[in-house]
Amino acid sequence: MNLAQVLRTAPDAPSAFQSARQRSAELYADILAVAPGGDGRVDIEAVQSRPSILRRTAALLSEALPPGTDRLVCAAPDGIAVTTALALHTGLPFATVTGAGDDARLTGEAHAGEHAVVVVPLVGTDEDAAPGALSVVRAALDAGMRVSHVLGVLNSSSGSGDRSVADVLREQYEVRFHALFPALPALPTFSTTDQKEVDPR
Fold first, then answer.
1. Neighbouring residues of 84: CB distance < 8 A, sequence distance ≥ 6
2. What is the largest CA-CA distance in the chain?
3. Where are the beta strands (DSSP E) in 30-136?
4. What is the pTM of this model?
5. Measured distance CA(135)–CA(179) in Å, rounded
6. Contacts for 196 with CB less than 8 Å, ≥ 6 apart
7. What is the distance between the alpha carbons of residues 58 and 113, in angstroms, rounded to a whole number?
8. Beta carbons of 83 and 36 less than 8 angstroms apart
9. Which residues contact 19 (CB under 8 A, 6 or more apart)?
10. What is the spatial distance between Cα 173 and Cα 163, in angstroms, rounded to a whole number?
């Protein structure tokens, strides 16, 4: 196969020249380059404000979508950017959930019986499950949708005795959780003298 044929059959140019593992590693490095908030937390807004990161994130998330997915669901406003990117990449429609806990409500077009996948940019432990993966799953189930998976970009579950959101989803709702990358509990901080300008676009 010549180069023109490879480029014509590849979903995008990077996949023609890099393995999935290489593309994933490169995306993770770019996310970590823009994500540190300085206090060991992940600045998920910085991650979601980079178009090149969103495009590549959507491509990787699309590979984890189960067959037969009818609709994506996310928390508003936290999950809208990454879910919009995934919707544009796959052509799937999405609905949003506003509020949290008992006040969580599904908005937008959604139909009972649809196979929904919940999309969240950042997931942590049960106590700090921002932006509310559990609330989004409950709201979708209350609307009569069938939820099989929650897809996340970063997982900040500590794994040090805290029950993770993945555990709760599996135990309470029989929903599987998949995150593209772990969010490091203590990301490195840089001084202004040794930090390079990083622009993954």
1. 94
2. 57
3. 71-75, 94-98, 105-107, 115-123
4. 0.78
5. 18
6. none
7. 25
8. no
9. none
10. 15
77 cis-preceded (ω within 30 degrees of 0): yes
Tens digit of each residue's pLDDT, the chain (201 residues):
555 655 465 555 555 557 888 999 999 989 888 876 656 667 788 888 999 999 999 999 999 999 999 999 999 998 999 999 999 999 999 999 998 878 889 999 999 999 999 999 987 654 444 347 888 999 999 999 999 999 999 887 655 455 677 788 889 899 999 999 987 644 333 333 333 444 444
If we measure between CA atoms, which residue out of 30, 39, 26 comes closest to residue 187? 39
Inter-CA distances, 71 with 43, 102, 122, 134, Å: 27, 22, 20, 17
In the numeric block, the tokens 């506003």 are attached to: 98
The residue count for the chain: 201
